[in-house]
């Protein structure tokens, strides 16, 4: 089943690291210039004291692709790691409640974040940047952790060009100090600002009522954006008509296998299953679910749940349809390093761009959804409260003919 084994992938990644380290990084000094995608990173270590700084590459002026997850679907894991290793991270210690109105360093990062494209910056480091792979070696990270590894050093100075072109939509929310953060987030999304960009804006305390603005660790801001936007979109599905048939969509990338099952229903419900397969072929499954009333508890699978939920409810809103949804995610050993919840969101978005396979019955739909997975249909169903509910009781609408539209 595996297209490539994990040892082959590790070998290629190691070769990629050596190639990068043999490149211009060997000539790094305390003062460097390079292109920022634009991008910033706020760590969660030692919260509420955090390390915040820009990401940039001295190897290429147009660095946009290096931190643009919306463009990474279909890429190999070696490519993703190469992107991350190509960016240098500058760090500066700050408290999350630092006075954003007087902190000129944070204000410079905010200005960088509003830029419409890759921006050339100049930095001065305390010492020569070094390769930091500690988070990789820990072996305790997950997709929700949003780790950052690569070349790192403490910043002493940051200079931006004087002619940065800023996004007017972002400026509008940045300068509106009376607009609530949730309202600003939904506005930016509706205006076409990408999720990865909105998360950076929230992370740097650039939106919300003035007195409430603060720095937010990057990994928290990403899941917060997914959760806030999907919650808003769910409210809108109540007025939509359901699909007529069960639909299945599939997609595979980075050793992750996705099957998305859309079941005709006029009431929203969502269930996500994650099955981690080890090298022996044994599986560990985690499941979280909600109905129209929402989640009872924070999901066990963390940010993965909200990333998947956003991709699905975004699709339903675009289609003006409602459904009950089951997402099956099977993770294989060749996924040797969690790269972030973006790959879940983008993987499911890719799946939903493909043609659906339709079915009349749930049983046949589930059989097709599981036919390329290692975990059996029965094992998935054992963990599915949604499937059990569908088999034991029908909807009130099942007893009436469907209205004509």
TrEMBL record:
Which GO BP terms sit in this record? DNA repair
Annotated Archaeal Nre N-terminal domain ranges read 13-278
Q: Return the InterPro entries for the record.
A: Nre (IPR033167), Nre_C (IPR006979), Nre_N (IPR006978)
**Pfam families, per this entry?**
Nre_C, Nre_N
**Occurrences of domain Archaeal Nre C-terminal (ranges):** 290-399
List the PANTHER family: DNA REPAIR PROTEIN
What protein does this entry describe? Archaeal Nre
Native species of this protein? Candidatus Nitrosocosmicus arcticus
Q: Upper lineage ranks? A: Archaea, Nitrososphaerota, Nitrososphaeria, Nitrososphaerales, Nitrososphaeraceae
């Amino acid at each position: 089943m595996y297209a490539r084994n994990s040892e082959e992938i590790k070998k290629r990644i190691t070769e990629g690291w050596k190639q990068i380290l043999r490149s211009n990084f060997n000539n790094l000094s305390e003062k460097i210039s390079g292109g920022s995608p634009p991008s910033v990173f706020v760590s969660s270590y030692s919260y509420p004291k955090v390390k915040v700084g820009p990401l940039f590459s001295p190897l290429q002026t147009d660095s946009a692709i290096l931190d643009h997850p919306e463009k990474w679907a279909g890429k190999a894991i070696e490519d993703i790691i190469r992107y991350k290793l190509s960016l240098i991270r500058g760090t500066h210690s700050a408290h999350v409640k630092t006075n954003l109105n007087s902190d000129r360093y944070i204000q410079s990062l905010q200005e960088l974040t509003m830029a419409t494209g890759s921006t050339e910056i100049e930095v001065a480091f305390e010492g020569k940047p070094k390769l930091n792979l500690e988070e990789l070696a820990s072996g305790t990270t997950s997709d929700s952790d949003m780790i950052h590894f690569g070349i790192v050093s403490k910043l002493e100075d940051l200079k931006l060009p004087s002619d940065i072109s800023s996004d007017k939509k972002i400026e509008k929310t940045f300068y509106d100090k009376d607009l609530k953060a949730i309202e600003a987030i939904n506005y930016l999304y509706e205006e076409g600002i990408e999720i990865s960009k909105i998360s950076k804006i929230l992370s740097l305390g650039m939106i919300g009522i003035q007195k409430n603005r603060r720095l937010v660790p990057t990994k928290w801001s990403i899941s917060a954006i997914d959760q806030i936007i999907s919650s808003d979109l769910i409210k809108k599905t109540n007025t939509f008509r359901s699909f007529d048939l069960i639909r299945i969509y599939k997609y595979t990338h980075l050793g992750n296998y996705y099957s998305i099952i859309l079941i005709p229903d006029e009431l929203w419900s969502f269930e996500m299953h994650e099955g981690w397969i080890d090298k022996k072929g044994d599986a560990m499954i985690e499941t979280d679910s909600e109905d129209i009333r929402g989640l009872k508890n924070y999901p066990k699978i963390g940010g993965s749940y909200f990333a998947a939920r956003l991709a699905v409810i975004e699709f339903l809103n675009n289609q003006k349809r409602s459904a009950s949804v089951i997402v099956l995610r099977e993770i294989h050993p060749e996924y040797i390093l969690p790269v972030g919840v973006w790959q879940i969101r983008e993987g499911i978005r890719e799946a939903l761009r493909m043609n659906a396979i339709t079915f009349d019955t749930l049983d046949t739909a589930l059989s097709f959804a599981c036919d390329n997975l290692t975990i059996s249909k029965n094992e998935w169903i054992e963990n599915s409260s949604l499937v059990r509910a569908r088999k034991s009781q029908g909807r009130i609408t099942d007893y009436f003919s469907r209205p004509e539209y």
